[in-house]
Amino acid sequence: MERERRAPSVHRMTTTPLRILVAGGGVAGIEALLELRALAGDRVELTLADAAPEFTYRPMKVAEPFARGHAARHAMADIARDAGARLVADSLVAVDDEAREARTAGGETLRFDALLLATGARAEPAYKHALTWDDRSGPDHLGGLLRDIEQGYVKRLAFLVPPGPAWPLPAYELALMTARMGSDAQTGPQITIVTPEVAPLALFGRAATTAVAAELEAEGVGFRGCAYAEIEKHHAVTLVLHPGMRRIDVDRVVALPRLYGRAPDGVPADEDGFVAVDRHCKVRGLRHVWAAGDGIAFPVKFGGLAAEQADAAAAAIAALAGADVTPEPFRPVLRGRLLTGRSERFMHHVSGGGGGEGTVADHALWWPPGKVAGRRLAPYLAERDGTPAGPAAPRDPGVAVQVDLTRELAAASV
Q: Model-level pTM?
């Protein structure tokens, strides 16, 4: 079990609980609630604001069209109850940092001592003549395309990763699983991935790039890197790849969306709506507001990173509440579970140095082995889904059991 790093800290000299408002009940929001309750206990009074009735485990949306899994759903009211938080079934639209007040879409005023924004990003189609897939798409979203492939109507298919902040992994999963389906039906199209990346999933390091390139080759999927596409549509579809003006004729195109932030009024953001934060995920220019998840100005958007950002923000807020914890800055560690045509690959890489070539394996490199390796969220959801989180899985949702298995095994061998 991963131990908390504790050291003497400056305690908040009051017996009144710190009022913490968490805006957004996605990965970052729930991770933050669980971490705050675990670190600060009764020192904090938690409120969760989210209009959605359910939390959906969206990383598994990619598996549903291929019957490779499903996106589990959990009632937001149950999650708030388990975290000891009050639920406000509404979304935040404005923040007054000086007054420490937030306004909801329904006009309710919520007061706070510290606010954690976990409102995520909004997805918009990046291309006009393409089928856009994102992790909010239903299982039938690709239904027509997959039926056309099975019937032999689609001979050339492209998957596009647009420029800008993104999480490219779903494009590879869709391409590999579609190629396998077409191969099984003996009507498979020629598939190409077009992406700004220099190599397949280069952000995971050289070991993952080599492994993913081999998966693509085995399934006959082409790769066009360092490229972004324009789509010309006349009687057929032509991709114009930049730089170089290379042209590819295809029958159909599936694209990931462009992502934009959705900062509430009163929160400074860049031209695309993303919020700048410091190393502890405190919003720059504000005194009482932190932010985590896809809505912050970080180039990679991924649930595991959102959970890590939430942990950094929660530790800083817990210390403000007087908890005996030394806040650690956000240090991105990438843990990706890639669904391939036949099975899955686990990839691990420490971003920004220290990770070497990274690690890739066909067995779990962390536990529980979900797609989002949040140290609080992963064991909590595993327990709710009825899956043991580990050999000694606790029922207390505030207990962290997620570990990197490679690190634990290495330590055990010393």
A: 0.90
